[in-house]
Amino acid sequence: MQKKETSIVDIDQMMNERFGVIGSESRNEFRKDAYNYCVGQLILEARRQESMTQNELAEKIGATKSYISRIEKGQIEPGTCTFLRIIEALGLKFEIVKPMTYALYPLNTPGYLSDSANRPYGSVKSNGTKELKSSK
User: Fold this and answer.
1) Residue-wise over 89-116: b if at least 16 C-beta within 10 A, else e?
2) Number of other CB atoms surrounding residue 88 within 10 Å
3) Has residue 98 been placed in a domain?
4) What's the structural domain count of the chain?
5) pLDDT along the chain (136 residues), means of 10
């Protein structure tokens, strides 16, 4: 049996070669296109889960079927108001949540993460090393 040759790829280098370095116009354009595609796919999946057609969704938000189609394909970015109308029409809820901050103190701070009883994966020792719980 022959082994399949694999090589490790530096994802940052690959992204830089294909889409330009971070902050460049081409990289920003790629990120915008990727964002539009992801939003479109989320809307498409939510619409399908509701067994709703593009026409039905368009009617609910006061748009055209072709507009919904272009959003779902990631060809255009819906404005904020349109996005929120789509979310509401699909029976979804939109929340703005402030992200939690986990590491406020250095890992070697006495007492920081010292109680591992409530952590399923283990704890961090006072010297900064991780101690994993056994899965037994």
Assistant:
1) bbeeeeeeeeeeeeeeeeeeeeeebeee
2) 13
3) no
4) 2
5) 76 90 92 94 96 97 97 94 95 85 53 45 48 47
